[in-house]
Amino acid sequence: MTVTDIVPKRKRLSALYIDGEFAVKVDTETIIASPISVGSEITDEQLKELIDSSNEKRAKEKALWLLSSRDHSSRELTEKIRRTCDGDSAEKAVRRMEELGLVNDEKFARRYAEELINVKHLSARGAKYKLTEKGIDRELAEEILEELDPDPREHIQILIEAKYLRSLSDEKGRRRTVAALQRMGYSWSDISAVLAEYEDEYGV
Question: Which domain holds residue 175?
């Protein structure tokens, strides 16, 4: 097989033409670093190596770009890279990020759990769901939340004061408030106990 043309494309890719026909798009820097040029003979094995090298490079670049905006769990990062690269390249890229210390599920889980509990005021159950959704091991999520030991009634009160106090003036608003708090993972027993305090104090 003969490389008959290499045409630069967008997103730092180049189209590789073999025997006069389009074959594949690969990373431009990968082609430049290889011995391949227009007129070169290329075997199926060499083409596969070129494609694999291109995919792995693009996967690592995607990983670094994603991590530059915020932390990710290993599963979350892998799934995002897979949208543009093959699965093997995505997994290799994430393993490399772990080796470099740029991805650490336990550190990610602790930071994310603190945000969910102390900033968004989710219940422990709601936070656990979010953590496992990101690919965090269920036992690790439970361990971290046990350490944080959030007081559900305290957080319900914070949410009511910040968002729902006016809604408690009528029955429809109270039902909406209860539904919103339940969606955040709070139990009816904790919600009703806090609402009872407002009834006693404010008559709402």
Answer: 152-202
| Region of 122 on the Ramachandran plot (φ > 0 left; ψ -120 to 50 alpha; else beta) | beta
What's the domain count of the chain? 3
Asked whether 131 and 109 are in contact (CB, 8 A), the reply is yes
Q: Which of 99, 133, 167 is the C-terminal boundary of a domain? A: 99
**Could you give the CA distance from residue 3 to residue 135 in angstroms, rounded to a whole number?**
43
Task: Give the least confident one: 53-67, 99-113, 158-172.
Answer: 158-172
pTM of the model: 0.76
pLDDT the model gives residue 82: 92
User: What pLDDT, in 10s, does the model give residues 121-172?
Assistant: 999 999 999 999 999 999 999 999 999 999 999 999 999 998 888 888 788 8
